[in-house]
Amino acid sequence: MTELILALDVLEREKAVYIAGECAPYLDAIKIGYPLVLSAGLGIAGDLAGFGLPLIADFKVADIPNTNRLITDQVFGAGFDAVICQGFPGKDAVEACVESAHKNGGECYVVAEMSHPGAPVFFHGGVAERIAEIAAGCRADGIIAPATRPDRIRTLRRIIGEKKIYSPGVGAQGGDPSLIAGIVDGIIVGRQIYHAENPAQEARSLSEIIRR
Hints:
It is a single chain. This protein is 45% helix and 18% strand. By secondary structure, it is an alpha/beta fold. Strand 1 (3-7), helix 1 and strand 2 form a beta-alpha-beta unit. Helix 4 runs parallel beside helix 5 and helix 7 (127-137) runs parallel beside helix 8 (150-160). The longest helix is centred in the middle third of the chain and has 13 residues, at 65-77. It starts with a strand and ends with a helix.
């Protein structure tokens, strides 16, 4: 079954909690990035924990191994269930995130390729494939691959096998959930849900599409 993950990139704590609460019945996880954490603090994880959904810290951690470990330990100490890191800093940097995640009973996902138009400049030409290989070799729980380029998802799937693929880019960036629902483990949707007039109804509609 393909999961629906809300990218909760609003800036106000109260709005974030309200949207999460309204959409929770149709979600499988909530992804929180820098916009909300810088505005509301790491404590937002505690505010959202009551909805019973896994919380993914999308910090795209990308530093030397020791710094990655320090950041990731803080993430799990705050109550998150998973963290997203970048793969381009290299195997040892990814390993630090994975080890921290698993030590804390959590998961780590590695960005293999991003979803925005400029991503191919640096992620194509074999780079994303190499990152996927690193993610698999480091025992990461999965990768991030672009809903905006289904062909790339298929290519990366051949490398990582049964590890999870979470896919951003649905909605505002143009990704079609009906095209990727069968080839990814979760779609990540932000603006299409939280900018909707009725976020809960939008989440419900998306959930129905990907679970057909």
